[in-house]
Amino acid sequence: MDVESSPAAGASVDWRGRPCRPRRHGGMRAAVFVLVFQAAQTMALAAVGSNLITYVFGELHFPLSQAANVVTNFVGTVFILSPLGGFLSDSYAGCFWTLLAFGAVELAGLILLSVQAHLPQLKSAPCNMLTMVGSCERASGFKATIFFVALYLVALGSGCVMPNMTAYGADQFAGAADKDAKRLPTYFNLSYFGFCAGELVALTAMVWAQTRYGMDVGFGLAAAALGAGLISLVSGVVFYRNKPPRGSIFTPIARVFVAAFTKRKQICPSGSSNPANGGAGDPAATVDDNFRHANKFRFLDKACIRIAPEPDTEPESPWRLCTAAEVQQAKTLLAVLPIVACTIVFNTVLAQLQTFSVQQGSAMDTRLAPGSSSSFAIPPASLQAIPYALLLALVPAYELLLVPLLRRLTGTRSGITPLQRIGVGLCVVALSMAAAALVERRRRDAAASGGGRLSVFWLVPQFLVFGVSELFTNVGLMEFFYKQAAAGTMQAFFMALFYCSFSFGFFLSSVLVSLVNRATARGGRRGWLGDNDLDRDRLDLFYWVLAALSVLNFFCYLLCARWYNSGGAGGSGEAASGEAASEDDDDGKGLI
């Protein structure tokens, strides 16, 4: 490749490493292939996670509380591995190859799960765990090893794939023509629409297949869906814009902390990381004068202090003198961590909808027409499809109707800022747990009085309310985190922070289940969640605990959002991604 055809540093390239052409590469045409892959991967993962508790409890014979923890630990591991995928992509491999490699790992895990579910010698002997009729021996030894190896291959693959799917699709609009670049908020809505479509198919058709034909068929369909998604991803290779990796994304941030520590005794001058100082000789034009977090974490500004060199000494190394841009990136990473922390309880609520709410449905009348002789029964795991069916209607309505209205009212391109959107979702989620607690109390009372089983449709409100909450929270988080990264350096890793909040939420669910059982089992009493029978458990009280935590978490978020927007001169996270002068520079507007 000659010098004239070489891409500029940081410029996007095509699949052959040549500079991208705005009219040929990127834009919505390229993003469609990624969206199809995202929908297929979501479908595959949801087909495993949504009904996993039924498989672990019913066919591997784990006790209910342990089965719930297997599910939440699996989902937590999926999301906690997302920073690994973001790091490898941003630093070394690039989004496309990371997606392809770890998509193949996930596919291998799904095939192994399907094989285990199909072969009787790899499962426990048949048994009814509710009546304890049969040999209810928990799977162990080689059987358990096969299961956990397959399950965590799926976790590794999907965890490293997820942050790169959204980031790679959004990369197709970075540096594109102005018309395409302005469609980035629309892309995030479409991305979530594809996610909901994948979830809906998994929670209806695939769960029905699992219930009707067996878990081996369900896992096999999940593998087929992922395989089709990988084909779609490869098919769009000639249209993609690819950001070349630039080496370890953590090294510049580590240098900031090391340099600030070594100069901890220096007096930090006012604006040491501002253009007036220039850091390590940076041109002022490359640094945002309105950086929002300039007055936060001031100890890091010492990394930019230039110490006058002694005669005949070498200039300071990068580990002792950092650029202003590096300090700003380190500050941005620290500043978003409280926002991540405030979404953990939200995802703990999601964990209940994938575990205990499924078991609630199993203890209710699942017939499509309650009280009739209809033989068609709704699989309890399919109840999780309710919020996604709602979102398939709400996402287009939000984009086509509500966003234009809000845009005229607020002057913000996306209608409301990402932080405001997150705040609305965190406020609403408490209502979902309150509805769940009320319904569970009614179901339990009906069972105790011999009044028959409540219809499974009583669970619809808690899923509907959570669906509305997801519409605001998750799309807001995706857009917020993507815009925090400096141009071309850490998009996938910052997107991984979005998925990390899922991980911490599911792990917190496991911890809460164990703590509640231990705290409520004192004095010889049975714990709230210490039995395999929901009629004897107190799931309703556990739901009320989560509702109270959600309310407390919302007020904590208000404080964190106010702190995040404090300081600076009105700049925003978009400034860090090279859009400081654009009309989309709106994260700093309003409290949340």
TrEMBL record:
The chain crosses the membrane at residues 31-58, 70-88, 95-119, 139-162, 190-211, 217-240, 333-353, 385-406, 459-481, 493-516, 541-560. Residues 570-592 are annotated as: Disordered. Gene3D superfamilies: MFS general substrate transporter like domains. It is found in: Membrane. One of its GO terms (molecular function) is transmembrane transporter activity. Keywords: Membrane, Transmembrane, Transmembrane helix. Residues 581-592 have a biased composition (Acidic residues). One of its GO terms (cellular component) is membrane. The keyword Transmembrane helix applies. It is a multi-pass membrane protein. Belongs to the major facilitator superfamily. Proton-dependent oligopeptide transporter (POT/PTR) (TC 2.A.17) family. This is Major facilitator superfamily (MFS) profile domain-containing protein. It comes from Panicum hallii var. hallii.
